[in-house]
Amino acid sequence: MENIIISKMSLNDIDSIMEIEILSFNIPWTKESFLSEITTNKLAEYIVARLDGEIVGYTGMWKILDEGHITNIAVHPKARRKRVATMMVEELIKVAKQCDIEKLTLEVRESNILAQTLYRKFGFEVLGARKGYYADNKEDALIMWTVI
């Protein structure tokens, strides 16, 4: 097992997060978006994964009453298939429970079967769709939910 450590995201992590964001998404969030999430959004909780001290993944959620909306999950290509995403979701669920969150939701590309497989391991089920959700190619998003 690799030496993966999960911790709360900090301002010092943003440059590494941006590298992963750009490598992972067709329409990446901006640096300003992440800065706002961790400095001013009181509903946001973000964590990072470090492999041998280097940030290799991140995820976050918004706390809305008793629900958590997972905003993003990304793992650096060189660290994929090492259980990083699984460990981050496990930690995010712990954080959610500490915040009295009972359900989690997220949107995922209809074509992203690997991500859907990960989410199903945690009990997520498809309960809806958002037609044309993704701006880059108008792909539909599946809306997945789980009770924690």
Key terms:
Aminopeptidase, 148 residues, 7-stranded mixed sheet, alpha+beta
Quick rundown:
Helix content is 30%, strand content 36%.
Describe this structure in words.
- The chain has 148 residues and is an alpha+beta fold.
- It has one domain (4-147): Gcn5-related N-acetyltransferase (GNAT) (Aminopeptidase).
- It has four helices and seven strands; from the N terminus they run E-H-H-E-E-E-H-E-H-E-E.
- Strands 1-2-3-4-5-7-6 form a seven-stranded mixed beta sheet.
- Strand 4, helix 3 and strand 5 form a beta-alpha-beta unit.
- The radius of gyration is 15 Å and the shape is globular.
- The protein starts with a strand and ends with a strand.
Furnish the topology, listing elements before pairings:
Layout lengths: L3 E5 L5 H11 L6 H9 L4 E8 L2 E11 L2 E9 L8 H15 L4 E7 L3 H9 L3 E6 L10 E7 L1
Parallel strand pairs: 4-5
Antiparallel strand pairs: 1-2, 2-3, 3-4, 5-7, 6-7
Beta percentage is: 35-45%
Low-confidence stretches: none
Mean pLDDT, all residues: 96
In whole angstroms, how far apart are the ends? 26 Å
CATH class equals Alpha Beta
- Strand tally is 7
What is the overall shape? globular
Element string (H = helix, E = strand): EHHEEEHEHEE
Counted by DSSP, the helix tally is 4
* CATH homologous superfamily heading: Gcn5-related N-acetyltransferase (GNAT)
